[in-house]
Amino acid sequence: MARQTRQNILDVAGNLFGHRGFDAVSLDHIAVEVGVAKQTVLYWFSSKDELVHEVLSETAVELTLVVEAAIRSAPDDPLDRMEAVIKAVFRPAVRRPSLLGLVREISRLPSESSEQLTDTLRPLAERAMRWMGDEMDAGRLRRADPGLVVALAYATVTGIATEPEALRVVGWNADISGLRRLRDELVSFLRAALDPR
Q1: Contact 31, 37 (CB under 8 A)
Q2: For residues 93 and 66, is the Cβ–Cβ distance under 8 A?
Q3: What is the spatial distance between Cα 91 and Cα 69, in angstroms, rounded to a whole number?
Q4: Looking at residue 163, what DSSP letter applies?
Q5: pLDDT, tens only, 115-171
Q6: What is the model's pLDDT at position 162?
Q7: Are 104 and 161 in contact (CB under 8 A)?
Q8: Which residues of 182-193 are buried (b: 16+ CB within 10 A; e: fewer)?
Q9: 86 and 153 Cβ atoms separated by less than 8 Å
Q10: Cα–Cα distance for residue pair 172/60, rounded to 1 Å
Q11: Structural domains of the chain ordered from first start
């Protein structure tokens, strides 16, 4: 039961941070939404900074698990595998829109806080670049810079969160249908760019 309280605090904090921003949400807000005293929040997390760090760490672990599962279950064809991974990354954002807000908020954090999240995700990005380079060397993907391809995919996902107004200018809406459309466009673009035929 006690561990469930801790998880409830993390879940509520993640949603509030994602929807309102880190600065706009206090520990008092979180306590009210969870239905506990502020002291209960402070029992589990000694400060708001610690809570922010834990929310971001949990988010990074969630994304890593989603990507790892997609890699394990994807077909051997590199274009199909890439599509499976992209769809897997978008799935949590469709289910939980506050996740995109968390991505947006990361860019507003002091560098030491954002670096912790980056350090968690770096091995995943490095693995993706190695895999892509190996597939290019084998002639199964068209030759390109694997780092730039991974950065392009990452920038597309983070751009949804950080630049929704710019995307609206070109007719994109920040809803479930819009997320799926953007996901499908990214998949089509990367397939066309990396198809070796």
Answers
A1: yes
A2: no
A3: 12
A4: -
A5: 767 777 788 889 889 999 999 999 999 999 999 998 888 777 766 655 666 666 777
A6: 57
A7: yes
A8: bbeebbeebeee
A9: yes
A10: 26
A11: 54-194 (1.10.357.10)
